Amino acid sequence: MAHYPWKHAEELKQTAQSMVANYKGILAADESNRTATKRLEEVGIESTEESRRKYRQLLFTAPDIDKYISGVILFEETIRQKDDGGTPFPELLKGRGIIPGIKVDTGAKPLAGSPDEKVTEGLDGLRERLAEYYEMGARFSKWRAVITVGDGMPTRQCMEANAHALARYSALCQENGLVPIVEPEVLINGSHDIDTCEAVTEENLRMVFNELYRHNVMPEGTVLKTSMVISGLDAPSRAGVEEVAERTVQTLERVVPPALGGVVFLSGGQGDVEATQHLDAMNKKYKNRVPWRLTFSYARALQNPALGSWGSDMANTEQAQRAFAFRAKLNSLASEGEYSE
Ligand code: 13P
């Protein structure tokens, strides 16, 4: 690895391996305040700094989740919050053997010149922010690019602008000792078929890995977070579980370097059970063929049942924790191809 300039090379490699350890995956709990508010209001809970803190505390203190969860992606507000006893969340997680991570992009904004598409912002001042997050205990971070499929979309300029930003973000992360989660999400929204999703995903990932290579990003210290190759939500007929598994794995094999630290998936609007089934099908059939761990980094597919059972008065904490731990356990099994319904 001598030609990579990163003084933290060995640490980055170790962190990436821990993030995708056997039977484990990542909890995405990095919803922006806007998204968190939407999710809380959907179940009748007012979104305040305190209700968001209580909700994240519920997740991070759920019994047994340390068996299934390797790391948690936090939001800027959350990484600075504490539990009821005054322990900062990053410390609480570390105490359970869970690695704290942090979302560092500042959101997807309309792309000038193609305003129906988005480009993710957040590079200004990022070096300094990363150094601070490292001090606070974060050892990985996340940046999400959004690729829309539709009439004439995605455009080349959208994919290139996002790939370039992902590469600059990743290089800054590795310079500062944090493993970048590189997330170029191809949105599930639309009526496109699975062939279209496959073509877009392959081309987009190819651009992303070309840019990462140009920017000296070390694959062993990088984790890809990708959408699956899947039919659009409104497609007239949607591909089944086996086909999604096969096409997703084949696409990854075509473009992802074998040296990469690992591959994790977002749930991206799939149903909770569907997201588990897809992950399981990939691992049941292809676990021994692919060079990387394939595991989860879900937000909605892990949290939905918990949010639904917490109750509008935030009273059913234990029930919500059980619901969360249950989905975490099933996805842990799916990450080894050992899930059965
Ligand atoms: P979902 O699993 O809800 O898609 O969220 C994952 C994520 O982190 C999106 O950036």
UniProtKB/TrEMBL annotation:
A molecular function (GO) term: fructose-bisphosphate aldolase activity
The UniProt record lists the keyword Repeat: no
Gene Ontology biological process: glycolytic process
Reactions listed under catalytic activity: beta-D-fructose 1,6-bisphosphate = D-glyceraldehyde 3-phosphate + dihydroxyacetone phosphate
EC identifiers of the protein: 4.1.2.13
First-tier enzyme category under EC: lyase
Keyword vocabulary terms for this entry: Glycolysis, Lyase
Keyword flag Kinase: no
Matching SUPFAM superfamilies: Aldolase (SSF51569)
Pathway this chain belongs to: Carbohydrate degradation; glycolysis; D-glyceraldehyde 3-phosphate and glycerone phosphate from D-glucose: step 4/4
Family under the similarity heading: Belongs to the class I fructose-bisphosphate aldolase family.
Name of the molecule in the record: Probable fructose-bisphosphate aldolase class 1
